[in-house]
Amino acid sequence: MGLTIQRNVVSEELSREARKYPYLASYLKKIIREVGIPLFITGKIPDYLKKASYVNVMYPLGEGIFIHVYMPPGGTESGYRKYMVVEPPKPPRTLMFLVETKIAELVTEKDVAQEPGEKRKLLLSFLEKVIDVVEDPVNYEEILARRRIPRKVPVYVVDYEYLRYYLIRDKVGLGVLEPFIRDPYIEDISCDGLGYIYIVHKIFGPLETSIKFETEEELDRFVIELSERIGKPVSHARPIVDATLPDGSRINIVFGTDVSLKGSNFTIRKFSKKPLSIIQLVNWGTLDERVAAYLWMLLLEGMSGFISGETASGKTTSLNAMITFIRPTAKIITIEDTAEVQVPHENWVRELTRDTGSAESSVTMFDLLKAALRQRPNYIIVGEIRGAEGNIAFQAMQSVSWDTPVLVRNTITGEVRLVPIGAFIDQFYSENEENVPKFIENFETLSMDRQGMVKWSKIKYVLRHKAKEIYEITYEGKGTIKTTGSHSIFILDENSLEVKPKPISELKEGDLLVTFVKRKSMKECSSQIPVDVYEILSTMNVSGVRVANGGYVQVGNSDTIPRILCLDKDLAYLLRAYLADRCIEAKRKLKNPTLSFSFGFSENEIASEIVKILKKKFNIKVHVKNRKTYSIFRVYNAPLSYLISILCGSKLCEKHVRQQLWKACSDVVKAFLEGYMADARRTGIRAGIVVYSTKNKRLALELVWLTRIAGFESKMFKNDKYYDVHIRLYGKGRIRPWSEKVPLKPIIRFLERKKLERKLPLELTYIISRFKRGKQKFITRNTLRKLLRFLKKYSSTFSSEDIKFLRKIKALLESDIALLKVLKIVKKPYSGYVYDISVPETELFIGGEIPIALHNTGHPVLATFHAGSVLRLIQRITSPPINVPKTQLDNLNFVIIQSAVYREGVMLRRMISVNEIIGYDAKADSIVYIPVFTWDPATDTFLFRGKGSSYLLEEKIATIRGIPRREMKLIYRELDLRAEIIRELVNKKVFDYYKVFGVVSKIYNIIDEKLKGKGKEETQYTILEGLEEALKKVKKAKW
Known about the structure:
By secondary structure, the protein is α+β, with helices and mostly antiparallel strands. It has five domains: 71 residues, no CATH class; 291 residues, Rossmann fold, CATH 3.40.50.300; 158 residues, Hedgehog/Intein (Hint) domain (Endonuclease - Pi-scei, Chain A, domain 1), CATH 2.170.16.10; 200 residues, Homing endonucleases (Endonuclease I-creI); 77 residues, no CATH class. Helix content is 31%, strand content 28%. The chain is built from 29 helices and 51 strands. It starts with a strand and ends with a helix.
């Protein structure tokens, strides 16, 4: 850095510049007499000058432009220091006219440039064609007076550089504003009407510039030219314009006295190509290392937050800085009016609003935010929430009715249950409690990953709240689901073959819902599942149960069975035969129950199989009693009778699929289903489809879910008192499998676009004709595989987009995805709780009588907001046009209130408070929040309320990590370690934004590696171990 302080002598650097630029020498000669010799800085302006009471500083911008910041002896109109632009003198007007006229003659329609760099290059090329630089002064008035202007205009060498500068400044740049745009230290440029233009300087704060508008006509003319230059002309019909300048800066223009009493005005918010890092903000005192560490922990766990403050409080700067704390592998979507948010993550989708003046073609922030919810991001970042889009940002509570079935697994016991979502979630709430997310441990639910594969995924939290209306959706297979209008259900887009979430309120009849039929066994499935008979019977308090010699189980003096059984094909067949309306007899004369089967004479084959299994597996003799039309088979074995009654239920209303079967492989489940065919009155077979009838709805639902997990198609229909479950158990038969269908439209379009429809082999030509006649909308997976084999021949002619589309088809073929058409949508009044499950891993859970993919919405949101306090923020959010119900505000986890403050005459930015939103207090009808950190203006430090004050750390994050209250010190140890790392980075002056992101990414990698294979109880200790290792590396400057 060239920094020279001379009190009596002009520095060598400044002297050199003055010799090079005579106009600078003239300016210095005059100004030195007024304020003395300026401090000339050729490198970075040092931060200590922020607090300097006396400022007389000059620095260069390049191309002969110099900036002088000082306080004139008589002061200024505003009381601010002066910002003087010293630039080359303007060339003669006549010269400008001559050159512009000659350039205009050369320009054609083909000479169009979009980018500023291209425009500059094109303009300079024209300039060189129309001028001839000469060594002697030129009389431009004489040239203009001639009848014909020469082909090349002679230009005096001294005028040449000035001519170049002003042509670029006025034709490519923003005229008198161009030096402000070039100055990297300027944050904001504002003209409030007649008078001076003001700026906000990063080092010297608010400054009064040397540019002044004297009349309304002059100001209006400038504003009109400015708006035309940016491609959005203002007029009395359209007096307000928001736009983005080529460098990314944001400009707002208001034209005329009709809408502004002080007349036309404009504001430019400068865009920084490289955002300030969180380490730089800590160094400047915007926040301290502990506040930064706290925010790091919140963003790590996906908390939602607003950075709120008045204009120019540094909200967007802090937002950009905080983004580096988000996990580096996260998918982030940013939504803005103008591009200000910078994201260092690779998986970043940047979306901008479009204002065309027409409602049909404009794209609002509301539109973009709704679309973002369907793209399954890990974080949504909104530049600034102002209107109805705020309501969308709070739609985390998108829920289904109490009776929606979900499959839940306890990771400790391994037990799997199909339960109503309300029955599962209610156990975590006290009476009348709602709207508070309950973070739970040790539970998983059936989910689906991004490749369309069904899997178990961890439940992070559950939620319930009341709703006044609900949508009832009926779909193929007679499945129904009841959900709030804001909830999303996954559909397959028929045009793109992409799986997307779609809000219920936008769902249409004919949309294709995503369901599943497992095409490969899950990792957890097994053909040999052990069953501990003694453990089951003793757990159910069977009297007299004991383990006899040789590892057998006996009840009293009864016959025995092996203690450990395998849930294989044979046992599954036996259980299902029992479920086919058999019973357990408990006669008074008999102390122990009896297992009883009844078979018609047409069921001899099944009866023989049952006898064979009982003999082989248990060495049990069956007692047969023949009646006129059927036979009764009785088994006098108490342990077996108790076991089957416990596994399956002893009465019809109790019968259900035992949880062990949820882990069974396809062959075992098939044997289980075949056993049900023992009751010919309740079964039927047609074209490979077995129809099971039962009055037990629970059993019917369990059969539907179980068979799909085992890889069999299944549907359920209600007929009078019975539920008919249709399962494709044997081959494909004559009825085309519904789970094999894939939309044909995009495939036909692809064939037409590649002109391949006439090259299809004869066996595939029918799909084209049938589709065009409206006879066929889908293609089976098997036919699609044949089509892909055909297309492989032409792969060398395919573009990258073509290959991407074919990969999408292949992925769909290999997935577990199946499709169900929406049949009916009805909106109904509702009174009661609705429920939701949070599954961060996949953002999806499977639910419904006929299972479908439900969107785990409620993505974390980061945004800026215009409000100077939490109370004002709450008032604005809960009032029009945002109108978020108070009961939904606990979806917002934290609020930062930030402000511009003055200390020792210098404007600084400070996080005034960091607040946690606890939730809605129904009795007081208010939102409860806690200021965890507050800024003390007297000492310029941040005060922490201390341990026990943070709901987010101690209740939410600690619960997620499985930290018991007695070990709460571990969460604060993590806070301290992260704060130490940040302080160390400050000390080592690691201020570069991307370097800071790199360090944070490496810390994530260290911890992730250490967490592999670790159990829940080890999580927090492992995180601390990883942070300690990271701190050592930062101290040794290994990064």
